[in-house]
Automatic annotation (TrEMBL):
Source organism (scientific name): Clostridium moutaii
Name recorded for this polypeptide: Glycine/sarcosine/betaine reductase complex component C subunit alpha
Molecular-function GO terms, alphabetical: oxidoreductase activity
N-terminal signal peptide: none
InterPro entries in the record: FA_synthesis, Gly_reductase_pC_asu
Superkingdom of origin: Bacteria
Keywords for the protein's UniProt record, in alphabetical order: Oxidoreductase
Broad class of enzyme this protein falls into: oxidoreductase
Gene designation: grdD
Length: 379
């Protein structure tokens, strides 16, 4: 008995010392819903076992049927009940985060995934992979960037580099983010590894993992995560990366990380660790803070300027031979940009070059057209 008392006293003494000197770390509890996988419940249990043996610095709570294992289990009878129980456990603070599949987030929330770039082995954040920050494309991509920065900082990347994938809306997002940066919101833009070295990223940059955060829309991000997770297996079994990541929004208060129903044990193992890192890094608090800083820098005002307007009908000047290509105009803005030139009596046509959309004008009018577009805010 005396020996037991001594051991208990030593444990409490160590805890007290850890709290006093700052070395004591809370053990976070991460839930895992085990219904819903295309590979069965045993694959989910295997994922939990892998994560515990590989990391062991957080606890895992299974949400599903009663199974023969040594994990804490919260019993539910199906996937839908599992999601309801997951929400209640999060609200009651009985778990700090949860990994699940096929969860519907409200508008304003999108998930921040992580993949392993095959060209370098580097981890790269994909912002975003499912859900949507906004129903407006440019709005959504700008907010995806802010959410990605919050997640990166929460997992220990203090000054993450940001690249914008060269997709529809990228130019508008770049313009808005540059203005946000100029107004005081800190963004560390990456440079493409391609010869032009601009902020807009190519497919090569995904393979190489050029930026810490790759900003895109959720459908493109969803496709990227799926391809990079399963490209070695043929598609029906995901093995690589960390999944679709935590749902992030300006005021979202539940840490829910998503994996696919096709995800295998090795990926879910890393998804559990990713969730635990986000919990330890207070990712939801970080997100709120980052959005507040962006709003103080004029986020809402900037986004209003980027809202698409109705295309004004302007009389087209007389047709000319056009061979001078002006790149750098987003495809969603081509019609408005053409109208700007037509209004100045410069004939132009929209086109698509090998690097994206272009406006074509007569060679002699190229420099004048560029200057007009610059004044109108398109360059």
């Amino acid at each position: 008995m005396d020996k037991t008392k001594k051991m208990i006293a030593e444990v409490f003494s160590n805890i007290a010392d850890g709290i006093e000197n700052g070395t004591f770390k809370k053990r976070f509890k991460i839930g895992l819903t085990i219904y819903g996988s295309e590979h069965g419940i045993n694959e989910m249990i295997k994922a939990a076992q892998l994560s515990r043996s590989k990391y062991g610095d957080f606890d895992i709570v299974l949400i599903g049927p009663k199974v023969d294992c040594d994990f804490e289990i919260v019993e539910v009878s199906n996937s839908e009940e599992g999601h309801r129980k997951m929400i209640s456990l999060l609200e009651e603070k009985k778990i700090d985060g949860c990994v699940t599949q096929h969860f519907d987030f409200p508008i304003g929330i999108s998930t921040i995934g992580r993949l392993v770039a095959p060209g370098s082995g580097k981890n790269m954040i994909i912002s975003t992979t499912t859900g949507t920050m906004s129903t407006n494309r440019v709005d959504s991509m700008v907010k995806n960037c802010i959410g990605g920065i919050a997640v990166a900082k929460s997992i220990g990347i203090d000054n993450p580099t940001v690249g914008i994938l060269n997709i529809d809306g990228a130019r508008g997002a770049q313009r808005a983010l540059k203005e946000l940066q100029n107004r005081g919101y800190e963004i560390n833009f990456a440079q493409s590894l391609r010869k032009n070295g601009e902020v807009l990223m190519r497919g090569n940059d995904i393979l190489a993992g050029t930026p810490d955060i790759m900003v895109c829309d959720s459908l493109t991000g969803n496709l990227l995560i799926k391809i990079f997770a399963a490209y070695t297996t043929g598609g029906n079994y995901e093995t690589q990366g960390y999944g679709y990541g935590p749902g992030i929004g300006e005021n979202y208060d539940k840490l829910i990380n998503i994996v696919s129903r096709a995800s295998g044990a090795a990926l879910i193992c890393e998804g559990l660790k990713y969730c635990a890192m986000c919990a330890e890094g207070k990712v939801l608090h970080r997100a709120k803070s980052e959005f507040e800083k962006a709003k103080c820098a004029g986020l809402e005002e900037i986004l209003i300027k980027e809202k698409p307007s109705d295309v004004e009908q302007v009389k087209m000047p007389a047709k000319e031979i056009v061979t001078y290509a002006i790149p750098g105009i987003d495809i969603l803005e081509l019609d408005n940009a053409c109208n700007v030139l037509w209004r100045k009596d410069i004939y132009c046509e929209s086109g698509m070059g090998c690097t994206g959309p272009v406006i074509l004008v007569q060679s002699e009018k190229g420099e004048k057209a560029i200057e007009i577009l610059k004044r109108a805010g398109y360059k």
